Amino acid sequence: MSFSLPERIEIMEVCPRDGFQSVKEFIPTEGKIAILDALAGTGISTMEITSFVSPKAIPQMADAADVTAHFNAKWRGKITSVALVPNLRGAESALAAGVDWMNFVISASVDHNMANTRRTVEESIEELKKVCALKGETKLRLSVATSFACPFAGDVPPEKVVRVVEESLDAGVDGVTLCDTIGTTDPKYLANTLTEMRARYGDYPFALHLHDTHGMALANMLTAMRMGFSSFDAAAGGLGGCPFAPGAAGNAATEDMANMAERMGIPTGIDIPKLLAVVRSMKSDFGLTTYSHLAVADKGCCNS
Amino acid sequence: MSFSLPERIEIMEVCPRDGFQSVKEFIPTEGKIAILDALAGTGISTMEITSFVSPKAIPQMADAADVTAHFNAKWRGKITSVALVPNLRGAESALAAGVDWMNFVISASVDHNMANTRRTVEESIEELKKVCALKGETKLRLSVATSFACPFAGDVPPEKVVRVVEESLDAGVDGVTLCDTIGTTDPKYLANTLTEMRARYGDYPFALHLHDTHGMALANMLTAMRMGFSSFDAAAGGLGGCPFAPGAAGNAATEDMANMAERMGIPTGIDIPKLLAVVRSMKSDFGLTTYSHLAVADKGCCNS
Q1: N or C: which end of chain B has fewer CB within 10 A?
Q2: With an 8 Å Cβ cutoff, is A222 touching chain B?
Q3: Structure ipTM
């Protein structure tokens, strides 16, 4: 059987943004920084460190500037930093704080974009253009939320993804991530959309952001890898989800993704035992609810 | 991209055997029967209902004959029954109780076979031959434990699987299941072994038994499906593991497997909402610790 895989994959650690924003109780800035430092020591090359979002919308991210200042003092030049910016105002703050990449979000699904940002897709693209005009040397990534499934509209047809990607590439974004925001898409549907993207954009290096709500994140990751995609978002301890949707599951855990890749002989740069120690301390020292298969696994055997 | 999948898959519900045997506290027979009846109503066509194992080794299975008697009174002819038999003595009990299939276990890994059964592989094959001689009209399945990974010997080379399969087919088994007993194998390794099996045995319908210790069960299931394999074991609520290895994770949850298949347009016959109700009651009415992504999932959305 043909089983081709990328020679190497890149994992962006999103726990400090997508992970922390799903935690209701405010994590003190020094706690965030301690976890960020520990994660930075696991061999990760890129990290989404915070979100420059209104503290009214997501109080957990109120210390975005402080977290970024700490990161820049300690890690800039060693680890690539990414900050989520939901709008022009967030971009201005991110640029003032100093990050390597900004990550702007537009949903492929109109319904979700309206719910998430109170904008039409057209309005979001106009906002993105303004961020592009402002970004200077800072790079800008577009995350296409609900690229496969929408909580309101169901399956999202590839044309809706193409539309957002097309306009954003025209506007000048430097990278694009396709997001299974609600973590319910299946490998066949994902493969169909990715095939469409390949047909239109050749080997453009789309990244994938896969939530694990229905347990298919690794199957989806594998499917994307077998099509040659090699950049993935993941959150240590499987944190993540939505602050407004308790019960929605988080991202695929970085350790589970890295383990699958490494087991298949694909280097990730991540020191998995070290990462597992960080995940344990996120739980024991900071009371965070983590979930990853690797973290709970034990050696053993059974009948069959 | 080529993304071929089977037209239909068969899931064998193993919760009443592999699931229950991992539960330390004895589940009263009436509780077992209530869950078995509820699972029988979810559209499943085959169920591993118990194990005719020594009650000293696994006290939870001490009521194998009673459970089988109940099943036969209520479900025989409607649902195919399977009972695990670890040895000739177990087979005699199973045949006396009356089951459609017996499921005999031999490990591909010598070390695991010795630990699990206190027999060499040769001795296990001799025992299997005795069961074959006794089985009459009752069908006999061989589950090849540690077909991919062994807790003691690490990766298991395909030759070791072939050796057990070869001798067992010669002995007259009616079906073979390849088991990722400890749930740590990866899709590439699995695909390599399955490719070897295809090369030797053509389209022989091997079933797969995939534990989810490292979260790769669905990725492995997908890999097998893409190679045309269409029979899988699964346990409602993700129960399972090893009574002697607390912390080892269970089987892939039936509801997660069925959901992935159904989402990809592959019928399973399983009524997923009905199954989820059973899983909830396993937790609320019987205090069982269940884990499945689908059971905890909630509708929601998040930033990206």
Answers
A1: N
A2: yes
A3: 0.94
